Each structure stands twice: as C-alpha cells, then as structure tokens.
Automatic annotation (TrEMBL):
It comes from Streptomyces cirratus. Residues 247-396 form the Thiolase C-terminal domain. SUPFAM superfamilies: Thiolase-like. Transmembrane segments: none annotated. It comes from the Bacteria. InterPro entries: Thiolase, Thiolase-like, Thiolase_C_2. It holds the Pfam family Thiolase_C_1. Signal peptide: none annotated. This is Thiolase C-terminal domain-containing protein.
Length: 396
C-alpha cells in the first residue's frame, strides 16, 4: 500500500469513491446519532477493503458543537484535513467537492464523509431537537414576522413556476408517485406501498400547492462515503467510481433577494460540474436529486439542463423518472419515500455509487438500453430554500 504523499511533491491525482454504506435507516429508536455515524463509517470502510489507517481526512456536519472534532474523537480518528461546511442539504456534495480537490492536490489521501441523525426518533421521544425558527438574527429577521416557514418558501417558489409556465399540481404529484414506485423495490426504503396522483392530491394540505405526499418523510439514519487518491484503488475491494467534475453555488437566504423563484442555484453548479467533467446532460445515465419537496426535483431537472426552462412539468410525466424510464431519478425512492433524516445529500452519493457499481440488485438496478450498467451518474444537492446547490458528476 502506498505511503502518504506530501503536498509539495504530490502531482494532481485522480479521485475515486472507494467505499459507501448506510447505517440502519428508517425507524431506528435505540442508537444515538453518534452510533449511527460509527455504524455507517465501519460499513463504508469494510466496503472499501482499505485499512482505517489510510484515512487522514474527515468531513462532518450537523452534530455536536465542533462537528468534525467530536465525530473524529468518537470514531477514534486524528485527521490532518477536516471540513465542517454547513449549507443545508447540499452540504455533502460541497464537502465531497472540497475533499476531491484536497486529495487531487495532495493535501489528503483518503477522506471520510459521514453523517447520522435520529430526527424521527427524537420527535417520537419528545427529545429537544434543533430550533427550526430560522432567522432570529441577521437579514432573515425581516421576513420572520410574516410567518415564512421552510415549506412555505418552497411552496411560494412552486406557485410561481405554476403561474409562469402552467405547471400543474398533477405534474408535481407525478414526481412523488414515481419516487414511491422506485422505493417499492428498495428494502431500505421507509415507505414502499404504491401511491397514485389522486392519493397525492387528496392528502392533507400542508402549504399550497403541497399536500403531505408532496413533502419528504422524516426518518432516522446515516451513511458514509470514503474518497481516496487513485494510487489506493488497486487495494480496494470494489471497482472505483471516479469523481469527474463538481460545481457549487449559492443564491440567497432572504426570499426578497431571490431574483427568480423559477431558477435554482443548480443552474450554476450543474453547468460548472458538466464543464469540469467534459460532459453534458445527455451523457448522464441516472440522476440523484435532492427532493425534500416535489418541486425541487422538477426545477432542478430544468436547471441542470435535462429539459428547457418551463418544460419540467411535461418532462416528469409519463414515467420518465422511473428506474426503467428515460432518465432514472432518485432510484432508491429519494427523500419523498426512502429516507430523509435531515441533510440527505450524502445519501445521493451512496445510491449513485451503488448503481454505477451494479450493486442495486436485480429488482432495482438501472441498466442502459443495451443492457449494460450505467456509466455516468449525477448527484445534485440543494440546501436551505434553494439557498445553495452542489453537483457532482461520477463515472465508472
């Protein structure tokens, strides 16, 4: 196994995802978030086939006062490269991009990204959880008196898209229906029973136009992803999945500062990721897209270039997003049906890697028209209320 390289002597290196894993997910009442971190980390390391001594970088957010330090101590690691970026749901794609750049430059050799949350169990046990009243200080304080909620902000954006382009509630509902269909064959998914467009439309109204089934579920769970420099790949247990390109972008926090509710920051992060990968949307075989609400999937598909602006409603109809559809999207069932413990972005990477490796199983493995395994996957995370975005292009 190669020894560590100094930053001064290391050439620009290719970076691969060499290990991925989920912790127990769904309804997990016993373990603490720290325990879920550890479980996912151990499983990802085992998946990689590498020794834990190669890990010299750690990325973690959302747990503890000093997130990466506390998690590192719990895992028994002493990393020389750390990241605790926190920009909402896109955090993990941002940190994966940071880690890939660090490894490529020789500042780290193997970086572990790890996450765990007991969001559902905390509510069930009536344990105190994070305060979701965003904006007590700073620019957001001027919107707080008007009662803007997180779901309300997404609902306003969806309504604007409906007004501008004629997008319908039925089209938004089709996103949830296809996510549930993809979840049906995923044994790790929290909800697997089929639903119809009418089921979505007739469920409890949350924030117009979103009913309950337009919104993500609340679950427990964690996952981990291990990235490493190319010289470690010969020692790994699985075929590598290469990081081909990445892009990040931020937009706004105050809704009044968002120029266009129908354009998300994925329009920038996606363009950058494709340019750096030397690829285009037509090259992508499957996409894992952050879906806290159905509108997120629709507008992100537009902004990533899979269809033109305003055509997202028509694009998501007729089964295009299904595992065997034209563009399989959220093949595990996504945040709408599989799991959503909080910042879901790392789960997107796990699922993309498993699909590219051909490990999803006979009932839900994506294949190309020629029957071969997919070659290129995209993972795009969104944070806040379309406040941030990060996109990664991955390939076999």
């Amino acid at each position: 196994m190669p020894g560590p390289l100094s930053a001064a002597s290391a050439p620009r290196r290719r970076v691969a995802v060499v290990g991925v894993a989920l912790s127990d997910c769904g309804r997990v009442d016993g373990p603490t978030p720290y325990a879920l971190h550890a479980q996912a980390a151990r499983r990802a390391l085992a998946d990689s086939g590498l020794d834990r001594s190669v890990i010299d970088g750690l990325a973690s957010a959302g747990l503890g006062t000093l997130a990466p330090v506390e998690v590192a101590e719990y895992l028994g690691l002493r990393p020389t490269w750390v990241d605790s970026t926190s920009v909402g749901g896109s955090t993990w794609e941002v940190m994966a991009a940071h880690a890939a750049d660090a490894i490529a430059a020789g500042h780290a050799n193997a970086v572990l990204l790890v996450y765990g949350s007991t969001a559902r169990a905390d509510i069930k046990a009536r344990r105190r959880t994070a305060n979701l009243s965003f904006g007590a200080r700073g620019p957001l304080q001027f919107e707080v008196p008007y009662g803007h909620t997180l779901v309300g902000k997404y609902a306003m954006a969806a309504r604007r898209h409906m007004h501008e382009y004629g997008t319908t509630a039925e089209q938004l509902a089709a996103v949830a229906v296809q996510a549930r269909a993809n979840a049906a064959t995923n044994p790790d998914a929290m909800y697997r029973d089929p639903i119809t467009v009418e089921d979505v439309l007739s469920s409890e109204m949350i924030a117009d136009p979103f009913t309950k089934l337009h919104c993500c579920i609340r679950s427990d769970g964690g996952c981990a992803v291990l990235l490493a420099a190319e010289e470690y790949v010969p020692d790994t247990a699985k075929a590598p999945v290469w990081v081909l390109g990445s892009g990040t972008s931020v937009s706004h926090t105050t809704m009044s500062e968002w120029e266009d509710f129908t354009v998300s920051p994925a329009a920038v992060s996606g363009r950058l990721a494709f340019e750096r990968a030397g690829l285009a949307p037509a090259d992508v075989d499957l996409a894992e897209i952050y879906d806290a609400f159905t509108y997120m999937t629709l507008v992100t598909l537009e902004d990533l270039g899979f269809c033109a602006k305003g055509e997202g409603g028509a694009f998501v109809e007729k089964g295009r997003l299904l595992r065997d559809g034209e563009l399989p999207v959220n093949t595990d069932g996504g945040g709408l049906s599989a799991c959503h413990p909080g910042m879901r972005g790392l789960f997107l990477l796990v699922e993309a890697v498993r699909q590219l490796r051909g490990e999803a199983g006979p009932d839900r493995q994506v294949t190309k028209r020629n029957g071969r395994l997919p070659e290129v996957a995209l993972a795009s995370g969104t944070g806040g209320w379309f406040c941030s975005s990060a996109t990664l292009v991955l390939g076999r």
